[in-house]
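A reminder from the course coordinator: this example appears on the midterm review sheet, so study it carefully.

Given structure:
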């Protein structure tokens, strides 16, 4: 279900600002920050402010329509949940991001449920570490 329809179905208004935030999310080739969304919103709606972007993203996240991911760069990035389910391995040394299918973490999810009686939500996450190339070169931060 699209973000627009999901918001309407749950009784939320589709304000011009919300529609532009959703448009920016859907138009992004990859994960996008609130600041990047705000730049796009402000170009088309000059009287907007960044708090509107943050409130809209918080709402969309709470409704499960977007995912938040911290790549360790000092800001959270957002991704439309319906686009794809994947995780990221983030090299702390060179900054490389490797996308990983969600099935890779399925055994962890199963283990946490079985051994800890904990139903983990592993929908979209970043795992920090060091890539093979940096390990082989002996690079250190």
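Designed residues:
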């Amino acid at each position: 279900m699209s973000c627009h329809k999901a918001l309407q179905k749950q009784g939320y208004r589709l304000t011009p600002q919300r529609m532009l935030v959703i448009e920016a999310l859907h138009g992004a080739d990859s994960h996008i920050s609130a600041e990047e969304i705000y730049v796009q919103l402000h170009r088309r709606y000059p009287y907007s402010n960044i708090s509107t972007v943050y409130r809209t993203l918080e709402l969309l996240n709470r409704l499960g329509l977007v995912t938040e991911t911290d790549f360790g760069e000092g800001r959270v990035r957002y991704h439309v949940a319906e686009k794809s389910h994947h995780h990221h391995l983030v090299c702390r040394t060179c900054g490389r991001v490797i996308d990983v299918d969600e099935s890779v973490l399925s055994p962890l999810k199963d283990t946490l449920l079985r051994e800890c009686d904990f139903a983990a939500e592993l929908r979209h996450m970043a795992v920090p570490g060091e890539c093979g190339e940096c390990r082989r070169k002996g690079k250190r931060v």
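The first strand starts at residue 32 and ends at 33. The chain is about 45% helix and 20% strand.
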